[in-house]
Design brief:
The protein is α/β, with parallel strands linked by helices. The protein has 9 helices and 11 strands. The strands form 4 sheets. Strands 4, 5, 6 and 7 form a 4-stranded antiparallel beta sheet that branches. Strands 1-2-3 form a 3-stranded parallel beta sheet, with helices on both faces. A two-stranded antiparallel sheet has the order 8-9. Helix 1 packs parallel to helix 2.
């Protein structure tokens, strides 16, 4: 869910028709609207949990969020399924590139759920989806893929959904999300002069750290110049601290209209000041 959870529109449906709820990694997002702390945000997101219904929880980068979700599931009587315990993901290649762009091959080991309960280890009651070609890069996307596989395995095992391993593979391999480490090639006069542009909508500290890690992994040998714009209600210091992990040649701050208005856009000068306050250099100073 986005801002949803306790306020999510899907709450109009009765629990009886909810096949499963899914929560991906929770970070400091919509702080002002959701109580101001990571715990209050997590409690709000947990509003999609329903008594007696499964909620699949992806790997949580912040332990406080994982603890809060466990407490909420217990209080609401929901069946919490920890995707990180049920699905293990392993890279079996470096990042490669073809005509479709960068990708990585991953193996997934998925626990079955005999007798109505999902095991918490691989063991003999597991199966493997090997050599999956993921175009959504980064460890955080492997966590998301694991959550998707965990959810579908639950639906297959407990609710009789007819989803073949081949369909699971096809879904993962075809998954793409615009502005989530979206790689574009800008061509000049000749193909050899193509410049690589990466579009990413990271706007929380955890997302910025994930972007930095993935950028270093995929383009470790490239010169990197960052162009950054942010909304005024984001954690500017936290996001910029995450981006500072990137080995970059320059950083440029700018402003863009958000939802058709410049009112919510953070001033470029403000972002530059925060960046410099952390001991970093702007593009003008580094050239």
């Amino acid at each position: 869910v986005g801002l949803g959870g306790a306020r999510d529109a899907t709450n109009v449906f009765p629990p009886s028709i909810l096949a499963a709820a899914v929560l991906t990694n929770i970070d400091e997002e919509h702080l002002a609207a959701l109580g101001g702390t990571l715990t209050s945000i997590t409690n709000a997101k947990a509003g999609i949990m329903k008594r007696g219904r499964p909620v699949i929880v992806a790997h949580q980068s912040e332990p406080v969020a994982a603890v809060a979700l466990q407490a909420e599931a217990s209080a609401k009587g929901a069946i919490l399924v920890d995707a990180a315990m049920q699905v293990q993901a392993h890279n079996n290649s470096e990042v490669l590139e073809d005509e479709g762009g960068p990708h990585q091959f991953c193996d997934f080991r998925i626990s079955r759920s005999p007798g109505g309960g999902m095991r918490k280890d691989g063991g003999e009651n597991s199966w493997e989806l090997a050599g999956v070609k993921l175009r959504m890069l980064g460890q955080h996307q492997q966590h998301n893929a694991a959550a998707a596989l965990c959810t579908l395995q639950w639906l297959r095992q407990h609710q009789g959904w007819d989803i073949s391993p081949e369909a699971l593979r096809k879904g993962l391999e075809s998954a793409q999300l615009p502005a989530r480490f979206q790689v574009l090639q800008l061509l000049g006069g000749e193909a050899a002069s193509a410049e690589t542009v990466v579009l990413d909508g990271a706007h929380t500290p955890a997302a910025a750290r994930a972007l930095a890690e993935t950028l270093q992994q995929v383009f470790s040998s490239r010169h990197v110049a960052l162009v950054v714009a942010m909304a005024d209600d984001k954690n500017h210091g936290g996001v910029l601290a995450g981006l500072a992990r990137i080995d970059m040649s320059a950083i440029v701050f700018t402003e863009v209209a958000i939802a058709g208005s410049s009112m919510r856009s953070a001033q470029a000068a403000q972002l530059a000041c925060i960046w410099e306050a952390h001991g970093n250099q702007t593009a003008a100073e580094s050239m």
